[in-house]
Amino acid sequence: MYTQALNTSDAEDRQIEDAARAGLFQARIDAEERIEPNDWMPAAYRKTLTRQISQHAHSEIVGMLPEGNWITRAPSLRRKAALLAKVQDECGHGLYLYAAAETLGTSREELVDLMLAGKAKYSSIFNYPTQTWADIGAIGWLVDGAAIMNQIPLCRCSYGPYARAMIRVCKEESFHQRQGFEIMLTLCRGSDEQKAMAQDALDRWWWPVLMMFGPPDNASQHGDTSAKWKIKRFSNDELRQKFVDATVPQAQFLGLTIPDPDMTQDEAGHWVYSPIDWEEFNQVLAGNGPCNRDRLAARRKAHDEGAWVREAAAAYAAKRSRRDVAQAAE
Amino acid sequence: MATPNVPLWEVFIRSRNGLAHKHVGSLHAADATLALQAARDIYTRRGEGLSIWVVPSSAITASDPAEKGMMFEPAESKIYRHPTFYDVPEEVGHM
Amino acid sequence: MTVANIQISETPLVLYLLRRADDALILGHRLSEWCGHAPMLEEDMALANMGLDLLGQARELYSYAAKIEANGNDEDKFAYLREVGQYRNLLLVEQPNGDFARTMVRQFFYAAFADLYWRAMMRSRDASLAAIAAKSEKESAYHLRHSSEWIVRLGDGTAESHARAQGAIDDLWAFTGEMFWLDDRERALVDAGIAIDAASLRAPWLKTITNVVSEATLTLPTNNWMQQGGRSGQHSEHLGHLLSELQSMQRTFPGATW
Description:
The complex is a heterotrimer.
Chain A: H1 10-14, H2 19-30, H3 43-62, H4 64-68, H5 77-102, H6 108-116, H7 134-154, H8 160-188, H9 192-211, H10 223-228, H11 236-254, E1 264-265, E2 271-272, H12 278-288, H13 292-329
Antiparallel strand pairs in A: 1-2
Chain B: E1 8-14, E2 22-28, H1 32-43, E3 51-56, H2 68-76
Antiparallel strand pairs in B: 1-2, 1-3
Chain C: H1 12-32, H2 41-69, H3 75-80, H4 91-94, H5 100-121, H6 127-155, H7 159-172, H8 184-191, H9 202-215, H10 238-246, H11 248-252
């Protein structure tokens, strides 16, 4: 949050945004200029971005839990090192994203408190359990694959700090999907039991992954303004289709069956998938997924049990600066 | 109870000798020593750096984008500061 | 089917390598348990980095042991197909994470040793070990720096952090003596210039520990009774649980490739 001193104050937020400034702002966006933290921006732009970037950050942090569930049980030392490095990367990505959100004027602590209070969303995919080792492969292959589809266009998002964070994230994530696909490939070339494990993981993750792209375009709440502000450059359905088209051949290569027997390929080569069960999506979003409670409980526990450590570091820093001042005075 | 804020730091990294330190991001830490260690652990995991600076975000004074005109536009008209402003015959060679 | 535990020809050098590899694996595993649960995101990153360093050290040492043993074993067989009694790590590193203070004190005690140990081992007559030492020394030096900074902050932070850090020091102290212990089989390697005499590291280790602990306004216990047994496979109750988790996949699906 560099140059925070100039960030818009509450008083200014309350001012009526004059049409001239809003017009200039939109002209900058249309000219593909990046908006930087201290630039004037409509309050709604600030709010939308704060919500989106912080949700993205929460997703990275909560997303550590399902995969973290297998770090201590990874079946080889090579897999263990790769998984630990990958889950650590997610922590780093959460961190970059919180920093980007903070440039808009809300502190990381406030954003995290909202998440812990259950008042902020994170990607609903992380409310599903990792039941077997194959889930680690499926998450890397499908969840990270879907995330990349979403994130690459965000590297050109109109808000500078978010775009820069995404460039770093995308660069680092390039190994994640490959890692997942390699796990799946090894399973599919293994015993019948391993192949069944891989198929079972695909069966369970396929539909939740398609839901990751969000509600269909005709039901999305944020689509219009986000597109106008060049925060979002492709619609949910466009990205979903792109993902399906990329993934079907990969599943065929693995010798796995997508759990959608009615899927067909249209004349343009696109794979047409069956209707998605949005009721399930809404239920998970409403807190009724299989792991919502576990995920929040784990994050709250880490936060609460870490409080005394953070207090100790703050207390030591305060003592230290008092000592330095006293020494300087001598 | 609201979680108390931990100070914010800006991280600058020199990726290779001969290059200047470049802003790479920020982090939270209670003091400078912890900030430097965290910067190492967060921003140099893939061999990105040879040297790190951490600076308290609050120590940075920034220009106001609203004053962009006054601050930066006067420089735009001083084209005589650029070598292309001057005509030197080609046969003189590189200068 | 390879459900059974592997058999190992524990020549002095193989045993020596397994002891160090097991230290690194078990401590790295413990640190990996923190992933996603640390007191702050910045520290989550740091704990994972240290865990990855140790995991890397373990893999190099196991691979070298496998080469020396030349018995068809490899890093994964060493890690996944030995039972508790075949593990040779220090009791210190298998102690549970507990709270952040306990994890940091354990890391601090071990890193203060490992830093000296690997630095000395860079002069090993065994070129492979000397190369592993050169890499590990830099990692351990950073682990020592990181954990020392935290010991000072926890000790000289709040009354609560002080009490937790002091409690961890008091409880873990009895596991530090084993680091400097040497048996006849290691003695032979010391005489051959392959290993170093760990006992010679005790004085400089104590000096580092004393400096940091006193800066942290903490104290070292006066009780100098030391536990040992890990090096010969006599472990605490904790290691079995750690291994049952670590090895669950290999034990459930014998012989599978992952």
